[in-house]
Design goal:
about 130 residues; mainly alpha; elongated
Length: about 130
């Protein structure tokens, strides 16, 4: 005998409908860590972030190569910078533009590649 009533021995059930923009923990010894990312600084940065995420999704469908890995690393850096600082710095944007140009054969046929190139041109003025 455990010293508990039959009701106390039953597993407890938790029902949660939906949660948006919140964090919670259920049970003992749980912790909650919530990471807030600043919003992109402006519409141009938001468009670049959207286009970069789409290009990364498209690249994931390719067989990994040195070109895809280099481009993906630059894309990750841009996402990280926009998510942590709200905007990618001009130097980071220039590096991405150069990497995108170098991977032209890879990204030229992708609409997401063109979208990133257009977003970069808007931000870099060219």
């Amino acid at each position: 005998m455990t010293g508990q009533t039959p009701e106390e021995q039953l597993p407890r059930t938790v029902h949660i409908g939906s949660v948006t923009g919140s964090a919670f923990a259920v049970g003992s010894h749980n912790t909650v860590t919530q990471h807030q990312h600043p919003a992109p600084a402006d519409a141009s940065q938001a468009e670049l972030l959207r286009a970069v995420r789409e290009l990364r999704a498209d690249l994931a469908r390719f067989t990994p190569s040195e070109a895809t890995q280099i481009l993906d690393a630059e894309l990750v850096s841009v996402v990280d910078e926009i998510e942590t600082a709200g905007a990618a710095e001009p130097g980071r944007l220039t590096r991405l533009q150069q990497t995108l140009t170098a991977a032209g054969a890879l990204t030229g046929a992708l609409a997401s590649g063109a979208a990133v190139a257009e977003a970069l041109a808007a931000l870099l003025g060219g």
